[in-house]
Write a structure and sequence with these properties.
Layout (H helix, E strand, L loop, with lengths): L1 H5 L2 H23 L2 H9 L4 E4 L18 H4 L2 E4 L3 H6 L2 E2 L3 E3 L4 E5 L7 E5 L5 E8 L9 E3 L2 E3 L2 E4 L3 E7 L19 E3 L4
Antiparallel strand pairs: 1-2, 3-5, 4-12, 5-6, 6-7, 7-11, 8-11, 9-10
């Protein structure tokens, strides 16, 4: 061991590794701010809803005859930020539910079978999917109503499933102490 420490290359390698780690850590913070790292790592540049495509029909591997099929399917892009959602007609509840986020509802459209959920940083956090027709398979559950931020949003019986793109525990910023253990947190309070 002493022989290795006497070798002049060992200290140089150790110093080079330490410098590399420090430069990498500082460079990562400069290039991508800390709050954006989670969003970049977990959510792409868009979230699209579309009808399932036919599979297994026609065309062998490498056959491009079905390329246009996706362009023929109806596609809806979800707004990735709360301001984009409001501009697209989604209603901002303003209040944030601890562990759930801010649940937006499409204004004037009862037939949209989902609600969008945003965090306190205005990022798309998830979706609340619902059906008035029974869906008996898990993770769907039967609910008598949905109350968001103390207000009823879906007052009729329905089957629901939550889909989260990020961890909802910190949706309202409670981990940083901004809302404490409050059931609902006003967005502007932090």
């Amino acid at each position: 061991m002493l022989e290795r420490l006497k070798n002049r290359w060992v200290p140089l390698i150790v110093v080079a590794v330490v410098i590399g780690v420090v430069v990498g850590a500082v460079g990562g913070q400069v290039v991508v701010p800390k709050g954006d790292i989670e969003r970049i790592a977990s959510l792409g540049d868009r979230v699209m809803l579309t009808s399932p495509l036919e599979t297994g029909a026609g065309g062998a591997a490498g056959d491009n005859s079905r390329i246009g099929v996706l362009s023929e399917a109806p596609v809806s892009e979800l707004p990735l930020t709360a301001p984009e959602a409001v501009a697209a007609g989604w209603q901002d509840p303003v209040l944030c539910d601890q562990g759930r986020g801010r649940t937006f509802r499409k204004t004037g459209e009862q037939d949209v079978p989902y609600l969008l959920i945003y965090d306190d940083q205005d990022g798309l956090l998830g979706m609340y999917l619902f059906s008035k027709t029974e869906v008996s398979a898990e993770p769907w559950v039967k609910k008598s109503e949905l109350v968001v931020a103390g207000k009823p949003v879906l007052e009729e019986e329905h089957w629901a499933m939550l889909v989260y793109f990020n961890d909802p525990v910190r949706a309202c910023g409670a981990s940083s102490g901004s809302c404490g253990f409050a059931t609902h947190c006003y967005r502007g309070a932090h």
